[in-house]
From TrEMBL:
Domain called Exonuclease: residue spans: 40-210
Listed Gene3D superfamilies: Ribonuclease H-like superfamily/Ribonuclease H (3.30.420.10)
The keyword ATP-binding is assigned to this record: no
Protein's name in the database: 3'-5' exonuclease
Signal peptide: none
Organism: Pseudomonas sessilinigenes
């Protein structure tokens, strides 16, 4: 056993019902040439105990669905996860999830199964998606023995790609919310941040269509090209 594995938490034990639910989870569907409007998107945000990718834990998950070109308020998800030994940390000042809120939360196994059943085979959107993708992926692997393979598109990359005229770069969600003058009532709460990200994504989908980007696959490809250009050395 490696030293790294020694410090990793032991995988949770699923009962027979949980195993059956996990095994019935649908495989993800790769992005294709259907229109952006036809694609069901799950917009997700997670709050965590900190920013350490290997040590900190997912404390809450918020998600909302974009379908038929609009936010479907009948499809929303929100869970706070119980975490043994959760203590006050600087992150509590941001998301407000103290020990009492965590103690009153849902069983992590049940919450994560509920979330993946909510996602189904849909792709996911998030702001600064690599962080959410990594934290969710690790939580699902540690708790359920489940490998997250769904496509994640990063709204933080979509915004500067599709709005090159905006005088902001490496911006946060608040910057883009202010740029587009969106009316956001609450922030730094998983469900509220997912909703704000969904509102921003709808604007960006409209910009994409104006730029002849009509499908999820073409948007994914354009994002990949844009990232490679940014990472290419300049001479």
């Amino acid at each position: 056993m490696s030293l790294f594995n020694w410090f990793r938490p032991a995988a949770s034990v699923l009962d027979s019902t949980q195993q059956q639910r996990r095994d019935r989870l649908p495989a993800f569907t790769p992005l294709d040439e259907r229109s952006l409007r036809e694609q069901r998107w799950v917009v997700v945000d997670v709050e965590t105990s900190g920013l350490n990718l290997n040590r900190d834990q997912v404390l809450s998950i918020g998600a909302v669905v974009i379908e038929d070109g609009a936010i479907d308020f009948s499809q929303q998800f929100e869970r706070t996860l119980q975490r043994e030994g959760h203590k006050l940390s600087p992150s509590v000042l941001i998301h407000g999830l103290g020990p009492s809120a965590i103690a009153a939360g849902s069983d992590p196994l049940e919450a994560l199964l509920d979330f993946m059943e909510f996602v189904g085979d849909s792709p996911l959107l998030a702001f600064h998606a690599p962080f959410d993708q990594h934290m969710l992926g690790r939580a699902l692997k540690d708790s359920l023995g489940y490998r997250l393979q769904h496509d994640f598109l990063d709204v933080a990359d979509m915004a500067p790609l599709l709005c090159p005229q905006a005088p902001i770069r490496e911006a946060g969600l608040d910057d883009w919310v202010d740029w587009f003058k969106l009316q956001v009532v609450e922030r730094h709460h998983a469900a509220a941040d997912a909703l704000a990200t969904a509102e921003l994504a709808l604007i960006l989908f409209n910009r994409a269509q104006q730029q002849q980007i009509h499908s999820p696959l073409s948007l994914q490809q354009r994002l990949g090209q844009w990232r490679r250009r940014r990472q290419a050395p300049s001479f």
